[in-house]
Amino acid sequence: MPVECANSLPASAIENVREVVLDGGRSPLSALLALPRDAPPRAVVVALHGGGMRAAYFHGAAHPSLSLLKLGASLGFAVLAVDRPGYGLSTTVVPRGESLVEQAGTLSTALEDFTARQATGAGLFLVGHSYGGKAALAVAAHPGEVAGGPLLGLDVSGVGHRYAIDVNGLGGFHGRRTTRLHWGPLRLYPPNTFRLAEGLVTPMPEREEAEASLWPELFPGVAGRVRVPVRFTYAEYERWWLHDEATLEEMTGLLTAPRVVVDRLPRAGHNISLGWAARAYHLRALAFLEECLSGREQSPR
Questions:
Q1: Residue whose C-alpha is closest to residue 268's, from 232, 240, 236
Q2: Is 203 helix (H, G, I), strand (E, B) or coil?
Q3: Which of 89, 68, 85, 86 is nearest to 77 (CA)?
Q4: Over the range 162-201, which residues count as b (16 or more CB within 10 Å of their CB) and which as e?
Q5: CA dihedral 168, 173, 175, 179 (to 10 degrees)
Q6: CATH no. of 3-298
Q7: CA-CA distances (angstroms) from residue 199 to 54, 146, 148, 202, 301?
Q8: How far lies 176's CA from each of 22, 187, 238, 275, in Å?
Q9: What are phi and psi of 101, to 5 degrees?
Q10: Which residues have C-beta within 8 Å of that of residue 256, sequence separation ≥ 6?
């Protein structure tokens, strides 16, 4: 099994979710892991958080229904939420973060380490939010096979291929000017969300923030190398990205994936997994995983 962190969260806060450390090659990566209670996992859900957040974004503390880790484990999946390079434990080695290409390599190495120690069932399924969605796409597009086992598919939210605003004029991706872009209406979130989210929010690494504005130029090259099913979700109050029908048709046309699904989630802001709509989104993401598993089982060997 992966090595457990000495600096673990209190048991009352993480319940059946525990902290682990993965070997990313260049740096160690901290992560949260939830496993099915009574059987080997059917597959592994690998969750990648967005910019300025931590892995616990997928284990929201404001309400029991928010946790992707607990939900996924209850349905027979292992769920591994990883602190991407430049967050958590890796800041001791790469305090400025890594480029998207470097992150893809580091994450692939970390997944190889994880799967060498842990049963993975049918393979890996990536769930990425915002910048973590970019990272998930980059991992899928990484040259050669994704280390650690078969990649079943991707489910990404809060990311498109054209920004809805002038990101170069923001003066930074995190601050007072971007609060409404990240959250949308406050009624979308359970009480105490913002007090409890203080432990999740962290500075966006310098190299990551510098490269973020280049995504519209990087996307076509990444999209053209994705060879597994992919699903995009756009919240009703998504304000970072253009997601009108014409833009989405252009975006999906750049993908070479065997199947591309676009979904919309009502009553949700950009930070979907911290809002009341989190459970609905997580169930839909896991339903897409079920479809990927079903398609794999029915494909000719």
A1: 236
A2: coil
A3: 68
A4: ebeeebeeeeebbeeebeebbbbeeebbbeebeebbeebe
A5: 110
A6: 3.40.50.1820
A7: 8, 31, 30, 8, 46
A8: 34, 19, 17, 20
A9: -65, -45
A10: 223, 224, 225, 226, 227
Alpha-carbon distance of 277 to 254, in angstroms, equals 29
| Separation of alpha carbons 263 and 229, rounded Å | 14
Q: Using CA atoms in the order 56, 28, 135, 13, what is the torsion angle rounded to 10 degrees? A: -10
pLDDT tens for the chain, residues 1 to 301: 443 333 333 333 334 899 999 999 989 999 999 999 989 999 999 999 999 999 999 999 999 999 999 999 999 999 999 999 999 999 999 999 999 999 999 999 999 999 999 999 999 999 999 999 999 999 999 855 565 568 999 999 999 999 998 887 666 666 666 777 888 899 999 999 989 988 888 999 999 999 999 999 999 999 999 999 999 999 999 998 999 999 999 999 999 999 999 999 999 999 999 999 999 999 999 999 999 999 775 554 4
Helix (H, G, I), strand (E, B) or coil at 112: helix
Domain boundaries defined on the chain: 3-298
The model carries a pTM of 0.91
* Residue 35 identity: L
